[in-house]
Amino acid sequence: MSVIISGSTGIAATSATQSIDLPQGTTAQRPASPAAGAMRFNTTTNQTEVYSGTAWVVLSSQTYSVSYLIVAGGGGASGSANTGTGGSGGGAGGLLTGTATLTGGTNYSFTVGAGGAGGATWGIGTNGSNSTGFGNTSIGGGAGAGGNVYSGGNGGSGGGAQTVYSGITVGSGTAGQGNNGGGGGGGSAYYGAGGGGAGAVGATASTSGGNGGVGLTSSITGTATYYAGGGGGGVGDNSGGTIGSGGLGGGGNGTYHGAGNAGTTNTGGGGGGAGTYTEGTHSGGSGGSGIVILSIPTSSYSGITTGSPTVTTSGSNTILTFTASGSYTA
User: Fold this and answer.
1) Closest C-alpha among 286, 259, 270, 288 to residue 86
2) CATH code assigned to 3-58
3) What is the distance between the alpha carbons of residues 87 and 78, in angstroms, rounded to a whole number?
4) Which residues pair with 285 in a beta bridge?
5) What HEC string does the chain produce?
6) Does residue 252 contact residue 284 with C-beta atoms inside 8 Å?
7) Beta-carbon contacts of residue 29 (< 8 Å; ≥ 6 apart)
8) Amino acid 12: pLDDT
9) What per-residue confidence (pLDDT) applies to 60?
10) Where in the chain is the domain with CATH 2.10.10?
11) Mean pLDDT of residues grouped by 10 in the chain (330 residues)?
């Protein structure tokens, strides 16, 4: 392409259908001593920038849309004591999906919540930790409770509890993120209730342990995967009642006379309840840690991250999977 250089008009293309190609390079390749007014295209940030005399200034901000999945850590389940008790399952971590508009050159931080610890006795476990991103907070799963003393923990999804006893309540879920934990039935603490999941409430415990609530599926990575299932209830009845199964999406299974099973790592699944008859004390299962996943148009992907996310592709999108806290610069 030919150009005209004029003292009055500067550089002009000879045709309105043509364009001027600016110098291109990464942020690290910026000129060491640029003159004021120097212009270039930054391939790191995908922005056109000009040197003001003191700093590089973006001329126009590129924006693009990304999809996200944010799951908090699951709640820990209740343990059990040697009095014939079944611990209730932990609630799943809150699950949020949506889209966000990103501005080129802007840094976006993400927090991945840890799963809550299981209870050491027939008391209550520990709530999961929150996950955050794009100004949203997924609430950690509520802890499961057992016996006739403690209520279930509130959270993204609520922990299970034995509601047959006066003053004992199930854990409440958070609207748009999860569901309530299950309650007790049959007048017995032998059977732990299920923790709530992102897709359903935890099951009631009556003559068996309650199943954890099912999670929800997401295809953000290109493969349909369940996340945020509730933990199953344990059994302390010497007659051998059926244990509660963890909900699809990483919920831990309850146990019969043993320690509860942990929720699956990076699913936000609730921990499974323990079970004891006379043999001592068993701990509840811990909740599974959370996860943050971004689906970014590959044509806009900058490649600038912290926290070592896993990078894959699905169709025309680049997928960032954060299993620990980190950031992405658009």
Assistant:
1) 259
2) 2.10.10
3) 4
4) none
5) CCEEEECCCEEEECCCCCCCCCCEECHHHCCCCCCCCCEEEECCCCEEEEECCCCEEECCCCEEEEEEEEECCCCCCCCECCCCEECCCCCCCCEEEEEEEEECCCEEEEECCCCCCCCCCCCCCCCCCCEEECCEEECCCCCCCCCCCCCCCCCCCCCCCCCCCCCCCCCCCCCCCCCCCCCECCCCCCECCCCCCCCCCCCCECCCCCCCCCCEEECCCCCCEEECCCCCCCECCCCCCCCCCCCCCCCCCCCECECCCCCCCCCCCCCCCCEECCCCCECCCCCCCCEEEEEEECCCCCCEEECCCEEEEECCEEEEEECCCEEEEC
6) no
7) none
8) 53
9) 66
10) 3-58
11) 48 63 87 89 81 80 92 97 90 98 94 97 92 98 88 97 87 98 83 96 93 98 98 89 96 96 98 92 96 96 96 98 97
pTM of the entire structure?
Answer: 0.87
Nearest to 307 by CA among 294, 293, 290, 322: 322
Q: What are phi and psi of 230, to 5 degrees?
A: -80, 155
Q: Which residue has the tokens 């059926």?
A: 242
